[in-house]
Records
---
Amino acid sequence: MTLLSALITPACVIDINRLERNSERMLTKCRTVGLPLRPHVKTLKSTQAAAIYAPLPSAITVSTLAEARYFAGAGYQDILYAVGLTPNKYEAVNKLLADGVAITVAVDNPSAVDALTRASSLFCKPLSVVIELDVDDHRAGIAPESETLLSMAKQINDAEQLAFSGVMAHAGASYGCNTQAAQTAMAKQECERTAIAAERLADAGLPCRVVSVGSTPTALSDYKQTGITEIRAGVYATFDLVMADLNVCAVEDIALSVLTTVIGHQPKKNWVLVDAGWMGLSRDKGSNNHGYGLVTDASGKVLDGWYVSMTNQEHGIIEHKDKLPIPDGLFEFGSQLRILPNHACATAGQYRKYFVTRDNQTVSEVWDSADGW
Amino acid sequence: MTLLSALITPACVIDINRLERNSERMLTKCRTVGLPLRPHVKTLKSTQAAAIYAPLPSAITVSTLAEARYFAGAGYQDILYAVGLTPNKYEAVNKLLADGVAITVAVDNPSAVDALTRASSLFCKPLSVVIELDVDDHRAGIAPESETLLSMAKQINDAEQLAFSGVMAHAGASYGCNTQAAQTAMAKQECERTAIAAERLADAGLPCRVVSVGSTPTALSDYKQTGITEIRAGVYATFDLVMADLNVCAVEDIALSVLTTVIGHQPKKNWVLVDAGWMGLSRDKGSNNHGYGLVTDASGKVLDGWYVSMTNQEHGIIEHKDKLPIPDGLFEFGSQLRILPNHACATAGQYRKYFVTRDNQTVSEVWDSADGW
């Protein structure tokens, strides 16, 4: 039996009770709206974690082909690769097809469709293709109202070895929605604009098998989606301080933390030095409200006002938001703390294994994760 | 023969000509001052890279025990672990000692010395210990003028299985020195304050075998160090935009870049979307002057004014600093670019392998790296 206190720090710790509770919350929401969930596995990139929030034979979403290969190796068959596909990745996609994986790829512009069409005879089986929509003027995607949407879909549909499957959208702008009302409005916009695209395509004789939307804030909002076929979301399983700042979760729901050890102090500055720097925490400052993360004691209880104010590669500096002196008996040399992450995807991305705990004292499991691209 | 253009992107590329040139520059500087260099290998964490800038039997500096084990496995014997040692790492240090590695550890406070002294009979061989000094009021370390320095050294010296070896300092404040004059002044301060500590210890009958200082800006400054025994530095081998902003190097010296592929555009915003997000670039904004990095063409030529303005996990957004429209023929779908990093340590830390090129077209070697803690 390994104790958390015996781990080499920094170490990434998963509170499995919280992970289970968060996963159940999203599944309940999807059941309520009557839609299947296609979890985005990019946060933890771990099949053991996915066994809780995306149990086989769940459909999943990935952000890299390395994730696709790793999850396919564990039996996941229905995989959406949600980043615009480029020619240097065709061969890797074809390898997945050859291995029997029902991978779906995304494109959002005519040049991407031209390139894919020209190369389509390369694919050993029909490749499922969705078109990414821009529903929130946020990042990528094509306008649901555009003529180009229809011509792209037709070109895909006509190509040998390509199968036009539908549309996907991600309302990334929901991360800027600070109220439940704004999140609900964004969910409505994400859903309605995506449904418009699907209707236009169906009217043009190009029905969409996949009409996919989602982000954690919109998926958990009060809006009841209609006209779509599935919901995607990812960070809900662990949550993080960005989600807590949006009131999508409570700080006490955050299932991922970084275990760290006190290596020293700078008493005149009221600083506590720990062995979690940006290599262990990531450089993600999230909402810019909590430095590099909030501090809890070794059991996960938030130490009010204490946060990681600065980081170097393997050093973190903890101080109180009101510059309070270091209390006696707290933060002693060699004692352990945990840091709640601004952005769970970025923090988890710094680790290849996670130490799972159910009692906040012992390690019940060690999970692995996909790496690279 | 693998072409860079065939790589799955994002990929981390090393321009070996630049790496060799940068390494030679630092070695020449150290030869000029007549001091040995103990390179910090935390930037690339790669034995194949170290073969150029820290060839065996060079002494090295590491930031994690995982680096220590990885480099020890390649034959490195004289290793300084430069992060304050805590009790949860004693067993891993002892394993290195048992494997014949002459590891040196660092402490900077009496509690750390107390803990180490109490546990010292654990170590299978005498463990070399240095005391970290605070020479610039920047992060960790104990004041060179303090009585505590002497009492800590004596306590280490008296302990069974501990060997007091000397002092180390790192003028991290040099990263805030924007002129050559300020860097030289900081080098003088770093060196003189460290030498004071060594003199005081020698006078107290505790001679220092190791009197170690360094940071890339101070090591490359005009100051001629005396009274010390070695210079440490790390990022000089690759350099980065932070170092270029300090005029420690030119942008054209930067040996590390991230190869990325254009996945689409948002023409109305003059955005180019690429497949390098913060997972491939890191979230490090460096001097806050270049977003998430400057853009070059596939051959490494800087595209003036183009930078990565925003990132998501696997998406980067490139735009011009003056919001210029996307020029015809540049940034076409599927074309490749390279991103120069703000902070090479953070960007390299996102990768487990590096693609090395000498001609900016073909991959001559693939290097691995240490991972984890």
Note: Chain B touches chain A through 62 residues (CB under 8 Å).
---
Amino acid sequence: MAKQQKPRRPKAQPPKGFRDYFGAEVTRRKAMLDAIAHVYHLYGFEALESSAVETVEALGKFLPDVDRPNEGVFAWQEDDSDWVALRYDLTAPLARVYAENRQTLPTPYRRYAMGPVWRNEKPGPGRFRQFYQCDADTVGAASVAADAEICAMLSDVLETVGIARGDYVVRINNRKVLNGALEVAGLAGDDKVAARGIVLRAIDKLDRLGADGVRALLGAGRKDDSGDFTDGAGLSDDQADTIMAFMGAGRETGAETLAALRDVVGDSTVGAEGVAELDQIASLLDAQGYGPDRIIIDPSVVRGLGYYTGPVYEAELTFEITDEKGRPRQFGSVAGGGRYDDLVTRFTGQAVPATGVSIGVDRLLAALAAKGRVADDIQGPVVVTVMDRDRMADYQAIVADLRKAGIRAEVYLGNPKNFGNQLKYADKRGSPAAIIQGSDEAARGVVQVKDLVLGAKLAEEASVEEWKENPSQSEVAIADLVPFLRKLLA
Amino acid sequence: MAKQQKPRRPKAQPPKGFRDYFGAEVTRRKAMLDAIAHVYHLYGFEALESSAVETVEALGKFLPDVDRPNEGVFAWQEDDSDWVALRYDLTAPLARVYAENRQTLPTPYRRYAMGPVWRNEKPGPGRFRQFYQCDADTVGAASVAADAEICAMLSDVLETVGIARGDYVVRINNRKVLNGALEVAGLAGDDKVAARGIVLRAIDKLDRLGADGVRALLGAGRKDDSGDFTDGAGLSDDQADTIMAFMGAGRETGAETLAALRDVVGDSTVGAEGVAELDQIASLLDAQGYGPDRIIIDPSVVRGLGYYTGPVYEAELTFEITDEKGRPRQFGSVAGGGRYDDLVTRFTGQAVPATGVSIGVDRLLAALAAKGRVADDIQGPVVVTVMDRDRMADYQAIVADLRKAGIRAEVYLGNPKNFGNQLKYADKRGSPAAIIQGSDEAARGVVQVKDLVLGAKLAEEASVEEWKENPSQSEVAIADLVPFLRKLLA
């Protein structure tokens, strides 16, 4: 028998995997987005804000998680017909928008976009189902000058938001070179799609598994520390050697790396084309002064996404942070992208070349926080306390004057009965100063100003004598309040 | 027999009722949001960005469309359990966030929030299912000083974004006064909920139907121009007179209006309380200099939402625009809000007073556009054209220098074969200038600068002689390019 359920109160919590952002978390992210948009804009990119909801057919199946192409989005069916979903990135919507508006948009179309995206994935610690991306893409430019430009811009963005040169590197590779290596290894045909997929994912795990682990995955397979076995691509030693040579082609200089890659791709036409493109990108960047201290060619970069067709790139932060177990580790990737010449074709049937980058804003914010490079906590408002409940209009007039002078200020609007609560509130808000005016002060046209920053300092350090002098409290004439506070806040 | 369907290309369009925003549309809205946030911040409000997705139980059923309380949201069921939905406003999420974090948040909690909200409504012309709101609320302040503050802030916001004083008015009323009038009219009891609902909706239609139309809806009902009949509340003449007297209590001055309202509510305790609150709000605003040229007491304001419990307010733009049929009409409401003391109680069981305003940012932008008060179109980048495909690195170096000097610039990245297309592109981008450098110019260390703004002017006005002089094109030494362009762009 079903028990009768009591009506209950709704739970005050967001859905699993979602979170809220408060005060400085919001304003810090906004400052970062503004700084990134400034650089994008300087490079000639235009803003685009596409709708958060797309038809499922327009989104297509390009989720990063190649193992679950049918999952990963939040989707629902419209009353009458179509399935729609929340966007999972900003690239699929761009392809739809460009295909829809290609007659009126300029070509090439440089656009930037920023905003939340949603992934219907299993939430975990620090892993949320809504997060920000901040993208820039050039649609309709076949030249790898567009890829080079985006890599240069990515470097500029990182330095603009506070990552010092030397603390990051932008790595570039080219899918065509990988395809050349696969061709040389005899993995080119349509019947080898599955094996190529395993190879791609194996290379992508180099960071985590090391060269030996990848080698095992290219061959028979790999047993991990827990004893679990992952099937390998089943390549012969010769085949695996080719792939390992590709991955390991990185050298001291770009020219040496390119030479090593030329060796790997041998007679492959697509491979040679890829190496030539990398060469061209390197020259373009060199001409603008972006040397290997900022941007390097790195054959180990493959990027997980299946839709890339040419240059791929990612930005990695190279400084060490301490992980949750206290061990030092590199911070890792904060941005990535590449050339995807087929996404618009899905809609139009015409080839439209495109390339672009996506910056993981939340990860970049975390990196700056880890380096102690975020702004100090934002200052709270000056709080005008309420001594006489009947004189609320006077207190409101005081804050009105302060705001007119550009000073952030408010009257305490809670229950004024307990004065201590008013000062506790000011503390909690991070207020720099509290204003106090009783009837005596009002009659004399003055207020008491409590310097809460100095007060907190004195509370920790001051002697009894210093306390008695009470240097953190000053009587100030109403007419002098604005200049007095300006000095205190400076 | 089912026909075999051909595989087809996805349609390149957003779901019905959704749209995209391009370039200046995005940056203008951003500029407005920044300006509003600045005022909110100055008043002591803190940013909050809650998740876009909420559990359906947390959202509750408070949609503005009281006739369809179960509809209007985009909702779906999570794999394992809960129904979740996209937020339909920013108030319901605030109530959830405050209930969840009430131990750690300061009280009163002043917060502002801005972002898209979603309504699952029938789309129509100019009516979209995703739009921006920009809210400020004070939670935990029982004093009507909090309501007065928000009305003052709303007035400041409108003037800050470019609505001149005299072109708007903030109207204030109080649900308690309405409840007093309903009590006097004998409509107070629990058994009169339906009648009260009809009365509320009738008053809300005053703008559209006029006093006679409302009166008909209070009584037997109303036949509209198309012959359709709407049932009325079935009030007696005396009852209807009381409601009409309430609505029509607006007088020349606030004091006279308050006196008229006192007459209407007679012996009703709640009514008298409401009038006293309005009186207090008026005094507080008066003390800060917000007179009836900005904020007035207007008994015809009721606001549709069922959850308001005290003061309600809205901002109306009073200038005329021309509607789609060429007739002049007032622009109307762009913001509204009020006191809702019960929303947090749903979660906690404890009474938590709250009040706040929501600004319809898209409507406000439309109003500014209608008044011709939006910034001119944003200037496009300087476009460096490609004369010699092989010298792409040189062109990239030129734009790199311009960007370093803070000048928005880009190299043309389309197919450079047809030079006319490059200039057409620059026109389409709204570029102020195009840079041209062939091998001859390169050898001499100069570029040609085409002033596209002047060029467009000449194309319309110039004589043959003026054309021949070609004053819109100048040869400039590379070393002088930055100062030359700075002057041209100024």
Note: Residues 382-489 of chain A form a domain with the Rossmann fold fold (CATH 3.40.50.800).
